[in-house]
Amino acid sequence: GMETRSCGVRHMCALTLLLVCVWLGVTSPGAAEKLGCSNLPLSPRQRELCRRRPFLLPSIQDGARLAVAECQSQFRHERWNCSTNQEPHVFGRELTSGTKETAFIYAVMAAGLVHAVTHSCSQGNMTECGCDTRLRGGGSVAEGWHWGGCSDHIQYGTWFSRKFIDNTVKNTSTSRGGYTLSTMNQHNSEAGRQAIDKTMSTDCRCHGISGSCAVKTCWRMMAPFERIGAYLKDRYEHSVQVTERSRRKTRRKDQHRLHVDKHQLIFFNKSPNYCLEDRRRGVAGTRGRRCNRTSTGPDGCNLLCCGRGYNTHVVRHIQRCECKFVWCCYVHCRRCESMNDMHTCK
Q: Which segment of the chain is annotated as a signal peptide (predicted)?
């Protein structure tokens, strides 16, 4: 079908659809729902899943938008700033390059889908899922607390994310000394889902006379997505290079692959330095990017501009200042001008 020719790897097709949903959402909110299951670039399995659960299309779109925005927020100061194209493929070559960046994209997209579906469940927007009632009634009443409230039901969102992107629930690690691009992507998607579980917190509310907190009702909540993004960025920084199965014959010493934890992100190939534009590889380069002259971090002009130097422009900034409340009833402000230096990479 169409999806096999355009994507090659079925697992990548699933993610491409998520990104198509982002693109449609940016160009026309609600466009994915209007197109319906039959007109979206879905595999037969996904089309059936969509046909049975069309009410999940808004969550698919929300989850994808959430993930792309968080990716760009986490990498805004880096040479690779999670740049996207204004087209359905969105991330371009980065989806198939097998680098740490590929790993992060798959993890954050799978996590975004879990987060959006779970949020919709907790809001009571769906008949198939609601709050997680398994904890109800437990806890230590003797110690003055019990489980109650509306715990986030991440199991449904996790199940749907696996079904939609991976079409598998089994462990994707292999014992034969290597991964394929598909199993690497599945491993990283699962690491993204695990991040939702890992970052969950317990929230409580007090009960008692005058708020004395004689008894507390507690429930489990997902972390805000910024915290999940920061957690995955840390996993990206500590990602593990693994062997590709197709290269096994030439790499005998790599046959006993180190055990990779399900929370770790994995990659095959070292990343390009992202310094210079390379259209063939889909690298935008850092020319024209704004940098911080005084920073020693990745956003500093030396690192971000890759030693090429930077241009300085003077930018006029106008804002309201010295505001005072005048009786009665308005605020009077002065108009202040400042001249600031802006540095951009050569």
A: 1-32
